[in-house]
Write a structure and sequence with these properties.
Layout (H helix, E strand, L loop, with lengths): L18 E4 L15 H6 L1 H7 L3 E4 L3 E2 L11 E5 L6 H13 L3 E7 L8 H6 L13 E2 L19 E4 L4 E4 L14 H16 L4 E5 L17 H4 L5 H14 L3 E5 L5 H7 L9 E3 L17 H14 L7 E2 L9 H4 L7 H13 L4 E5 L20 H12 L4 H11 L36 H6 L4 H14 L1 H5 L1 E5 L6 E8 L2 E8 L5 E4 L4 E9 L9 E4 L4 E8 L1
Parallel strand pairs: 1-2, 1-13, 2-5, 5-9, 9-10, 10-11, 12-13
Antiparallel strand pairs: 3-4, 6-8, 7-8, 14-15, 15-16, 16-20, 17-19, 18-20
C-alpha cells in the first residue's frame, strides 16, 4: 500500500521535487545477460532512495524490436522480455511508492514501431480501419510525395507496395508516425494513459511531443522544421490530449525542442497549459549534431536566463544538463580530464538551484564521462552508425568521424552505470550490450560514497538543500551579469533573503565582484577549499560557491 499523499491531494507535488532518470537497459543487470532490467532497478532501490530524489523517470521498457532502443514501441501494455514481466513493473511501482518515490514513464506517441499491430493492419490495405492511424500519401511523379526528410537521414517517406502509397516517418523507417488528425488515434492513446494510471503511474515524459502535428498541405519546404515541429494547429491536439492527463491527475513533462519560450508559455501555463513542464534544448543546442566545439558561457547564461524569466509567474521550468540523447555534461560543458570533479560539481550547482524541477540522469551524479570508443562497431546507436556511413561516403576519414561521434553520440549517455571497480563497473558479470567506460575503475558509486568531497556527495547536498529551503522553491531568479565568458552568477531571493550562486565555468581563473548590498553572507556549500574574504572574489577554475544572504 502506498504511503504517498495522492496526486489528487497534492497536484503540484512535482514542483518541490527532484527527478532521477533511469535508462533501464544500462542501469543494473540482475539476471546475468548483459542487459539491465526491472529487477535490477528494484535491487538498487536503496541507492536511489539514498540520493533523496522524489521521483524517477524511466526510459521505455515496453515491447519493442529495439531499432531505436525502445523508442519504437510495438505494444504499450506489454514489457520487452529482456527487461522482465508486467508483474515486475507492478512490483517496481509499488516498491518506489513504499519508498516515497513517484514513478514517471516515457510515453512515445508521435510514432510506433512498424511491428505494432496498428501498423501491421494499416499497411494491408487502404480500406483497413487502422490505415488512417498513420500518415500516407500517394507517389508524386512516381516518387516520394515531397522533400521532407527524416531526422535520422534520408527521405521521411517509405513505400508500401500493398497499398501503393508512402508512409511518413520522422525518425527511422521502422518508426511510422501516427496520424493525430484522426480522432481514433487520440481515443486509442487515451485508453493506454488510463490503463497505466490505474496501475499506479504518477506521470509521463512525452517523447517528441512537439512533432505530433504535420503540415497538412504536404508541400515541399525550405526549412524542414516547418513540416513537422510545432506546426500551427498543434495547440488543439495538445489541449485534447491534456484532458487525459488531468483526468488522471498525472504529472507531465513534454519534450519540446524548438518551441520558443514565448509559445511555451501557453504549453505550461499553470491554469490552462497542456503540460506541467517541458524540456527545452536551447542551452544544449549551440551546435548541430556531431559538431565539436566549446560551450560559450555567455550564450549559456542568455539561454537559461531567457527561460527562467520567460516562464516566471506563468509556468514551470524543467532543469537538466543530461539525458539519454545527450553527451555527458562534464564532457560537453566541462573538462572531463584535468577538472572532472570540479567541473561536474560547478555545473551541478549552476543548473540545480535555478527555479524549476531539477532532473538528474543516471551517472551524472558521479560525474560519468563520455566514452572513447575507437571503432564504429563499438557504437550501438542507429543514428551514430548512420552518421558514420554518410560521412565516409562524403569522403571523411574514419578517424575524424569518430572524433565527432566521441563528442556527441547518444551512446555516451548509454554506457552501463558504474557501481564499483569490478569488471563492467559492477553493472553485469556478463558482456554488456554496450561496452562499459574503462574509467569505471575509479569513477563509481562505491568509491564516491566513501569520499566526502565526491561528485555524488555534492549532488546529495544539493538535493537536500533544494528540497529543504522554500527560497529555492519559490524565490525569484535574477542573473547577476558578469560580462565575461567564464562565470555564471545569479540569485534566488524571497523577502530580502536569498541565495547567491557563484560559479566559474572555465579552465582559467576568474574574478567576480560581489555588491555590498548583500549582507551577512554565509557560505553554505562550495566545491573548493579556497576561502573568500573580500567583495572581489578570485575564483579558481571551476570553483563554485553558494552563499545565503540578507539584503537591505
Amino acid at each position: 500500500m502506498s504511503i504517498l499523499i495522492s496526486n489528487q491531494q497534492n497536484p503540484t507535488w512535482w514542483q518541490n521535487a527532484v527527478g532521477y532518470q533511469i535508462y533501464p537497459k544500462s542501469f543494473f543487470d540482475s539476471n546475468h545477460d548483459g542487459i539491465g532490467d526491472i529487477q535490477g532497478i528494484i535491487s538498487k532501490m536503496p541507492y536511489i532512495k539514498s540520493l533523496g530524489v522524489n521521483f524517477v523517470w524511466l526510459s521505455p521498457f515496453f515491447a519493442s524490436p529495439n531499432i531505436d532502443n525502445g523508442y519504437d514501441v510495438s505494444d504499450y501494455q506489454a514489457i520487452d522480455p529482456q527487461y522482465g514481466t508486467l508483474d515486475d513493473i507492478f512490483e517496481m511501482i509499488d516498491q518506489f511508492h513504499q519508498n516515497n518515490i513517484r514513478v514517471v514513464f516515457d510515453l512515445v506517441i508521435n510514432h510506433t514501431s512498424d511491428q505494432h499491430h496498428w501498423f501491421k493492419e494499416a499497411k494491408k490495405s487502404v480500406d483497413n480501419p487502422y490505415h488512417d492511424f498513420y500518415i500516407w500519401r500517394k507517389p508524386v511523379n512516381g516518387s516520394v510525395p515531397n522533400n521532407w526528410v527524416s531526422l535520422f537521414g534520408g527521405s521521411a517517406w517509405e513505400y508500401n507496395p500493398a497499398t501503393k502509397d508512402y508512409y511518413y516517418h520522422l525518425f527511422a523507417k521502422q518508426q511510422p508516425d501516427l496520424n493525430w488528425e484522426n480522432p481514433k488515434v487520440h481515443q486509442a492513446v487515451a485508453k493506454i494513459i488510463d490503463w497505466w494510471a490505474e496501475r499506479g503511474v504518477d506521470g509521463f515524459r512525452l517523447d517528441a511531443i512537439s512533432h505530433l502535428k504535420k503540415d497538412q498541405r504536404f508541400k515541399d519546404v525550405t526549412n524542414q522544421e516547418d513540416a513537422m515541429n510545432n506546426v500551427s494547429g498543434i495547440d488543439q491536439l495538445l489541449a485534447n490530449l491534456s484532458t487525459d492527463f488531468k483526468r488522471n491527475h498525472l504529472m507531465t513533462v513534454g519534450e519540446a525542442g524548438g518551441v520558443p519560450v514565448e509559445q511555451a508559455k501557453r504549453w505550461v501555463d499553470s491554469k490552462k497549459g497542456y503540460f506541467d513542464m517541458i524540456f527545452q534544448f536551447d542551452h544544449v543546442s549551440f551546435w548541430e549534431k556531431f559538431t565539436v566545439g566549446k560551450v560559450d558561457v555567455a550564450k549559456l547564461r542568455v539561454a537559461l536566463t531567457r527561460w527562467q524569466n520567460g516562464l516566471d509567474n506563468n509556468g514551470w521550468n524543467a532543469l537538466f544538463l543530461e539525458n539519454h540523447d545527450l553527451p555527458r555534461a562534464v564532457s560537453y560543458f566541462g573538462n572531463d580530464q584535468k577538472f572532472r570533479s570540479q567541473s561536474a560539481t560547478a555545473l551541478a550547482m549552476m543548473y540545480f538551484l535555478m527555479k524549476g524541477t531539477p532532473f538528474i540522469y543516471q551517472g551524472q551524479e558521479l560525474g560519468m564521462t563520455n566514452v572513447d570508443f575507437n571503432d564504429i562497431n563499438q557504437f550501438r546507436d542507429l543514428d551514430s552508425q548512420r552518421f558514420y556511413r554518410e560521412e565516409l561516403a562524403k569522403g571523411a576519414s574514419p578517424e575524424e568521424t569518430l572524433v565527432k561521434l566521441r563528442a556527441k553520440s547518444r551512446d555516451n549517455a548509454r554506457t552501463p552505470m558504474q557501481w564499483n571497480d569490478q569488471p563492467n563497473g559492477g553493472f553485469s558479470d556478463h558482456q554488456p550490450w554496450i561496452s562499459s567506460n574503462p574509467n569505471a575503475r575509479y569513477i563509481n558509486v562505491a568509491n564516491e560514497v566513501e569520499q566526502t568531497d565526491s561528485v555524488l556527495n555534492f549532488y546529495r547536498q544539493l538535493i537536500h538543500l533544494r528540497l529543504k529551503d522554500p527560497i529555492l522553491l519559490n524565490g525569484q531568479y535574477q542573473l547577476i551579469e558578469t560580462h565575461d565568458h567564464q562565470s555564471f552568477v545569479y540569485q534566488r531571493e524571497e523577502n530580502h533573503v536569498g541565495y547567491l550562486v557563484i560559479t566559474n565555468l572555465s579552465d582559467q581563473p576568474a574574478t567576480v565582484t560581489i555588491s555590498d548590498r548583500y549582507q551577512n553572507l554565509q557560505l553554505v556549500l562550495t566545491n573548493t577549499t579556497e576561502k573568500q574574504q573580500s567583495s572581489t572574489m578570485a575564483l579558481k577554475p571551476w570553483a563554485a560557491y553558494l552563499y545565503k544572504y540578507e539584503r537591505n
